[in-house]
Specification:
With 386 residues, the protein is an alpha/beta fold. Helices cover 35% and strands 24% of the residues. α12 links the parallel β13 and β14.
């Protein structure tokens, strides 16, 4: 299978530019042995490369590239398949952009094209190349620090007080060293429940978790609870029962965030939207969770207009290495900024994921990087400061 991978990366600071010709010569020989062709661009700081050839060979070479410490912040921009090569007869050819204007580089690459239909400006690979040459995306190049730059130090004083019978999962602002919300996890439904019985149990579980958590939740902290979206539709007086439970827990509606998952099928959007209006009228905030993982996406965001969205692990995992994931998050952040919707990034496990998202403008996070279940919140500190 003919495979194409396009990536960009950052030359390591300690590596002199003078080593590039030797690197290219060795890489060209390796590529040729794997029947892989490549076009490599360098602008003085960043590399951009198009690799294409048999899938096994391309993946082997790309794996070596990712492990090469002479560069860092390797971001995969495209992985695609095609019926024929775009380029040929070159193990790898280097174009140093410091010695070419953008027009001559683009034409030189076109001249190397071996596609049956010839490369055109509609080709995705060439579009990526053109964008790099014209430096139209440089403001989105977030250069994250190495993971070992940080220590994550538990802070018992900054952790939520435990509550009997409830598990808390904090939402944190790591650089502000602040817990901004506490998520209380309701009990799971017994196996076999469906229909109205499932939704009744879900509402009871949510109100029960609210009651157990309420006494331990500080007045200045939001309490976050997840609920099945159709519970708000199929359970009579669901919103009024939630309001009564909030009062019984000694809280006010303005402290509560109800999260509904985008991955749950909302079969009656108008009825759900009416329930959301009732929530808002009562003072309860709404979050769309697992945002980007489901099929509703921006359509649901436009229809419902929540107070928050929570991006899940399906989007944030390895985001520092994935151009497509970065593009999705950039789009979500721009949209949410225009609508004044707060964004939470959940499922954070790696320092690089947090650093990239923080650089992109996210401030609220959840995940094992900051809070293992039942453990104290761990705040990031630079190793030099420890």
């Amino acid at each position: 299978m003919l495979t194409t991978i396009i990536y960009r990366s950052h030359l390591a600071d300690e590596v002199p530019v003078s080593v590039l010709p030797g690197m290219v010569e060795k890489a060209s020989l390796l590529n040729a042995r794997h029947q892989v062709t490549g076009i490599l661009l360098f602008n003085g700081t960043h590399f951009f490369q198009i690799l294409e050839g048999p899938e096994e060979g391309v993946l082997d070479i790309y794996g070596r590239i990712c492990a090469d410490r002479r560069h860092h912040n390797v971001v995969e921009l495209m992985r695609d398949y095609s019926p024929s090569r775009r380029f040929g007869n070159h193990g790898m050819e280097l174009f140093d952009l410091r010695h070419h204007d953008s027009g001559s580089v683009l034409q030189a690459v076109l001249d190397r094209g071996t596609s049956k239909y010839r490369l055109t400006y509609d080709d995705r690979g060439l579009q990526f190349l053109r964008t790099f040459v014209e430096a139209r995306e440089k403001e989105n190049y977030f250069e994250v620090l190495p993971a070992d730059y940080w220590d994550f130090v538990p802070d018992d004083n900054g952790s939520p007080a435990p509550a009997a019978g409830v598990t808390f999962r904090p939402v944190v602002d790591p650089l502000g060293r602040e817990v901004t919300a506490l998520e209380a996890l309701p009990d799971d439904a017994p196996a076999g429940l469906s229909g109205v019985a499932l939704y009744e149990h879900n509402l009871d579980a949510v109100t029960g978790a609210m009651n157990r958590a309420g006494r331990s939740c500080p007045d200045d902290i939001m309490l976050y609870l997840s609920i099945l979206p159709m519970t708000l539709v199929y359970v009579p007086e669901a919103v009024s029962r939630l309001v009564s439970a909030i009062d019984s827990a000694g809280m006010v509606p303005q402290q509560i965030i109800l999260g509904v998952s985008e991955t749950e099928i909302i079969s009656q959007l108008e009825a759900f939207s009416q329930a959301v209006r009732q929530l808002k009228q009562a003072g309860i905030s709404l979050s769309i969770d697992n945002f980007g993982d489901g099929s509703a996406g921006l359509s649901l965001l436009a229809h419902v207009q929540p107070d928050r969205v929570r991006i899940g692990a399906g989007i944030v995992r390895n985001i520092h290495r994935s151009g497509p994931r970065q593009a999705v998050v950039h789009a979500v952040l721009r949209c949410c900024s225009a609508l004044e919707i707060n964004v939470i990034a959940a499922g954070i496990e790696q320092p690089e994921e947090w650093m990239w998202l923080e650089a992109a403008g996210v401030t609220d996070f959840q995940g094992a990087l900051f809070t293992a279940e039942g453990a104290a919140v761990a705040w990031p500190e630079t190793r030099e400061a420890v």
